[in-house]
Amino acid sequence: MQVEVMISAEDIAKRVRELGEEITRDYDSKDLVVVGILKGAVVFMSDLIRVITVPLEVDFMATSSYGLSTQTSGVVQLLKDLDTSIEDRDVLIVEDIIDTGLTLSYLNQLLHSRKPASIKTAVLLDKPDRRQTEFVPDYVGFVIPDRFVIGYGLDVEHKFRGLPYIGVVNN
Ligand code: 5GP
After folding, report:
1. Among 26, 36, 132, 136, which lies 20 to 30 A Cα-Cα from 19?
2. Is the entire prediction scored with pTM above 0.85?
């Protein structure tokens, strides 16, 4: 398998710092809960929370993913819920990538019903070409073309999450 670099580790680090600065400004004096979506968001989230300088709590949710296929089933299933209450708190959902938008619109609706003070979303990557919902993320690292990407948390068949860059597989 040949992996071509789409976004280098240096470019990711620079953009994550910029996002952290923007989020720090926006969440001054707020009660921030950062919700990472397992497993893909763990690398992005761990870098992002270290460049956000306002106090924050972290929690995680997990949804069903593509499994072993690169095509989404169109059905989102909740595999792990939050441990913490988000009522009257400011929630920032952190996700690796938005593709169809089904995962984020499902999670957004679910968390809205728990009456938080606010909900926003941060995604490292945005693949707008295959969107099936009106969902618009609030913070976007990079807009990318419709290619299947791996690395920096993103997997193919459960592997390659530890690559320090975003790559594309060339078979
Ligand atoms: P959506 O619900 O927006 O279609 O998809 C979100 C999820 O699909 C992401 O959290 C990720 O798990 C998976 N996904 C979408 N595009 C890609 C991709 O190019 N590479 C990988 N590894 N996963 C993807």
Report:
1. 132
2. yes
Res. 64 pLDDT band, cuts 50 70 90:
confident
Considering its fold, how many domains does the chain have in total? 1
Residue 50 belongs to domain with CATH number: 3.40.50.2020
Q: Please tell me the distance between residue 66's alpha carbon and the centre of ligand 1 in angstroms.
A: 7
Whether 35 is covered by a domain: the verdict is: yes
Tell whether the model's pLDDT for residue 156 goes beyond 80.
yes
Q: Is the dihedral of CA 77, 83, 84, 87 positive or negative?
A: positive
Q: How far is the CA of 93 from the centre of ligand 1 (A)?
A: 15
Q: Which domain holds residue 40?
A: 9-146
Beta carbons within 8 Å of 73's beta carbon, 6+ residues apart: 64, 66, 67
Q: Which of 99, 126, 129, 138 is catalytic?
A: 99
CA angle 10, 13, 15 (to 5 degrees): 110
